[in-house]
Amino acid sequence: MKYKRRKVLEGLFVGLAVPVAAEGQMPNEASLLPPQPGDLLVYAYGDAAGSVVSVDDLKADSKQVFAWAMDPLAGTIRNGTRMNQLVLVRVDPARMSEATAARSAGGLLAYSGICSHTGCDVTDWNGEFLRFQCPCHESQFDPADGARVVGGPAPWQLASLPLENRDGKVGVAGEFEGRVGFQQPGLSPFGI
Ligand code: FES
Fold first, then answer.
1. pLDDT (tens digit, 9 = 90+) per residue, 57-111?
2. From the CA of 17, how far away is ligand 1's center (Å)?
3. Quick one: which atom of ligand 1 is closest to the CA of 115?
4. What is the pTM assigned to this prediction?
5. Domains and CATH numbers, the chain
6. Does ligand 1 lie within 6 Å of residue 120's CB atom?
């Protein structure tokens, strides 16, 4: 399969653009931990960055947003590594597989935001088929069915993060299910 060079460069830029710690500073240990049961989700970027996600947020079947987990007691946002970044989306429950619905909080679903192919951020959305799409080589993942691969070279689905409704806020109900990371770490310094 031949990939478009422009797309690859765009994707690499997107991947490297994710801030993990202020320049010259070591991220603290708690920020490096993957999302933990009991954490809350906060928005990663934009005007709402750092705000807790509500179970009523986001429009159904619309483009994903990026989020991090946060320890609600210490207030530590687990953004010390981009491997912790999440994509958050609202899916019509009628379209969800049974296993996916069990991980949802009121229709919201969270997945690892790292593409399993070569590790780009999963930033794009295919509005026609209601799927995540990776900007690098156009892998597609179905959020209504465990983010399984439905197109492109990605070798495995995005890892799922179980969620729960915690008094109207979106909480983490369990650890990642599935593998976080990617297949060809040679293209990125962040491979695991
Ligand atoms: S990094 Fe290649 S399809 Fe996502």
1. 999 999 999 999 999 999 999 999 999 999 999 999 999 999 999 999 999 999 9
2. 16
3. 4
4. 0.85
5. 5-14+30-182 (2.102.10.10)
6. yes
